[in-house]
Amino acid sequence: MEISWFGETSIRFRGREGIVAADAYRSVVGPTGRGLTADIVTFSHPDDAPPPTRGRAAPSDSDGRVMRPTSLEGAFLLDGPGEYEVRNVLITGVRSFRDDERGARRGLNTCFIYELDGMHAVHLGDIGHLLTEEQVGEFGSVEVACVPVGSALSPAQAAELVAQVGAKLVVPMPIGNEATSRPAMERFLHEMSVQDPTPVARLTVTISTVPSETTVVLLESRSKG
What does 166-209 look like in DSSP terms, one character per residue? Predict the structure, then answer.
């Protein structure tokens, strides 16, 4: 599995079964996708950028959330909880929220678990709370976790969330501008006992190379590529 970060919560997962792009919003990857291609696009939450004044109307899911259209035309779109098999990729969406008040302040969120190359990767979107026992059970065993840092969760809560998920490979997703995301990331790395990590362009992992201890991997953003 190859994992690349395109900024904010936009992540690409490439496996033998296919390519999944999480949160490939136009506001992040631009109108042409910045070289991002995918068979499947999942949306964890609505795009926070202002809606477009032109173009086709944004689709909405069964909860009435407005989802900004992706620039990856032709990709299969998923934006809510459920169990799916799309183009040979098994995907589970787990309902969550962007705050600790069941979405009362910031709305809904969907955590997606993708099965690729014999491994499970969870994309936590912009989750704003720790997991319930039921949610942990729905996640099952995962090898990779993509965790938001700098949004609703404090750095300490983000680290606690990592412990709940139990993934051995952790990919932090800095949210917000550098002035706010950098201090949050530094505190998160401190909570995870990580010092001076070197960002890499992409993470490539197989089932045989999953580390035995929890490892944090910083990815370079491709949002300006």
Answer: T-SEEEEEE-S-HHHHHHHHHHHHHHTT--SPPPBS-EE--TTT
Confidence at residue 35, expressed as pLDDT on a 0 to 100 scale: 65
Specify the pTM: 0.88
What is the pLDDT at residue 68?
47
How is domain 2-216 classified at the architecture level of CATH?
A: 4-Layer Sandwich (3.60)
What's the pLDDT score for residue 222? 83
162 phi and psi angles, rounded to 5 deg: -60, -45
pLDDT at 164 over 80: yes
Phi, psi of 119 (to 5 degrees): -125, 165
Domain-wise residue ranges, the chain: 2-216
Dihedral, 113, 1, 73, 79 alpha carbons, nearest 10: 10
Distance, in Å, from the CA atom of 119 to the CA atom of 213, rounded to the nearest integer, reads 16
